[in-house]
């Protein structure tokens, strides 16, 4: 059976990524220059900026990103709000590159390899937990949500930027960036995630549908892929030559309502 770790590490060109960035940007890459590899979620850096505004509005002093990948979200957050930032991802190869990218870009966050379904932190450790396209790789969502509640401060918030099942989920096409096969894609519906959150005795403070702007973004990205260019780094260096197909499948899945993109703020 395919594993999450294998999915995200099998095509990873770690040394090449770091060498190219260090050569091209001797003063350190900025968030836009890193975006082709560390903003691979649906919505890209624009979505990360919206989430970073949430963190700033909540005035969090401690922030955990669960399923952080290469850490792009927290590097965006650090530009807008000062806090203690912690990245956690189950794929150690991604965590290693995340740490190196922080050094190159002169950003300061703690990077830990760990499982979001069993968080390695004491109770009440964080004011805000963010999960950006992370639950979709986690089969045991109730454990993940309970762990988030445990490590949140009493007045803390959980922010989810997630892919959910759409009304036409049966038309879902693979591969997509988070799964080459259905076995790794653990999408649930709005009704299911609401029920899980209620089970943990947390409350949904707000829910926003970001599907339309996500579709606009994805169509623009697909158009860019069809224009010959030679970027310093590219998504192919993370997810391999299938990335172009993955992107087109995301666009199609959004268009046919196989998937939806939502943001939930939970307390």
TrEMBL record:
One of its GO terms (biological process) is methylation. GO terms for molecular function: S-adenosylmethionine-dependent methyltransferase activity. The keyword Methyltransferase applies. It comes from the Bacteria. Keywords: Methyltransferase, Transferase. Residues 64-160 form the Methyltransferase type domain. Transmembrane segments: none annotated. It holds the Pfam family Methyltransf_11. PANTHER family: GERANYL DIPHOSPHATE 2-C-METHYLTRANSFERASE, ZGC:194242. This is Methyltransferase.
